[in-house]
Amino acid sequence: MSQPWWNLSRYCYDGPEYEARKRRAIFEPPVLSIKEVHAAVPRHLFEKSTWKSLFYVGRHLALSIAFYVFATRIDDLTRSFCAFCGCADQARALVSFALWINYWFWQSVSFTGFWTLGHECGHDALSPVGWMNHALGMVLHTFVLTPYFAWRITHRSHHKGTNHLERDETYHPVTRKDLKLPDENVATSMDYKEMIEETPAFTLFKMVIRQFLGFQLYLLHNRKGNPKYPPGTSHYKPSSKLFKPEDRNAIIASDIAIGTMLAFLGTWIHWTSFGNVWRLYLVPWLWAHNWIVMFTYLQHSDPTIPYYRGRGWTFVRGALATIDRPVFGWIGRIFWHGIAHDHVAHHFFVSVPFYNLPAVTEAIKPVLGEHYNYDSTPTIYALWRAFTQCVFIEPEGDVVFFKNQQGKALREYKFSAAQSQTNTTSEEVFE
């Protein structure tokens, strides 16, 4: 018998796939080759259709416009409803707020979808025509205030070094040394308690800041990015160490586009009001950042998923250090174009269009076997679990796992000579 919707335990449990990974406490890195994975995918799934992609973009735009039109009618809808029901003034305010909440949720979902479509353009995955991908990506990403070319460059670097602690660009975990914790062999439970334990309220506060502002802070000054870059590193700075000298003009073009969007918002505020733009654009924009940070964080941050250093990493191992999650079910599939549902396949084949990735996922599952990571844990609980249990990693080791606030990891790696593998990558596969 299913539990009622108000029973929180219905949404707070570890998925069976997560439990299965926990039971495999000793981790053996995969020794698959990229050729094995590549050979499992039918050739037609690599084909891109500009018209099919434009259909998805057009459908998404139409839904977003419909949500906007609904929002502009909220005051009229509230008056009509309250006149029909004979509502008091207090009830009228509640009805209006409920309708705005409804708009903010769905428009934030839609804004997130614009970002995911722009992400596809950054991988040249929507069209076989290069300039078409760039034109669409520039518009889609600029609309949600993401510098298209700048983010495209660093995101592609992330794919070339996924979960490699020296090479990956994003979500770098803090280490035991960063937290000034004693060495593992001498640290006591009191050491961990004094240094990293915190109240649930403070954890929630940090979580809210990261969810709503974390992505923009990363773009502005490399927050949670690779610590190898110097202070002042920014996606908006053409001279940043994130980029090569030949990227300069592209970064400037992204900055000009963002400046144009900000000018548009400023003009909109001038001709209407800040409150109007706040309700119609800025609130769903902030909530969209929450969704973006949520699924990008969960794609790679999990107590059962490894990070690598040095010779422990290969392209295949990095691609498999990610997780497929059915984030928000049909909402994630339709509005976010399966960006969380088929993320493992995306890491192997970044230029495959999103509408072909479900078939790619099914094709490679038999090859990946137990190394294919899927997690049906309810999304919000999975986010809380990762935020509270993925606290730090050890500063040394070729293969490491997150440790929790008590200094314990769910899995451990034991080196075996049979697990040593030459890194076999192909520009054709991950570029």
From TrEMBL:
Alphabetical list of PANTHER family matching this protein: OMEGA-6 FATTY ACID DESATURASE, CHLOROPLASTIC
Protein name: Fatty acid desaturase domain-containing protein
Upper taxonomic lineage: Eukaryota, Fungi, Dikarya, Basidiomycota, Agaricomycotina
Domain of life: Eukaryota
Keywords: Membrane, Transmembrane, Transmembrane helix
Transmembrane segments: 53-71, 83-106, 131-151, 250-271
Molecular function per GO: oxidoreductase activity
Organism the protein comes from: Obba rivulosa
Domain Fatty acid desaturase: 99-373
UniProt cross-references to Pfam families, sorted A to Z: FA_desaturase
Gene Ontology annotations of biological process type: lipid metabolic process
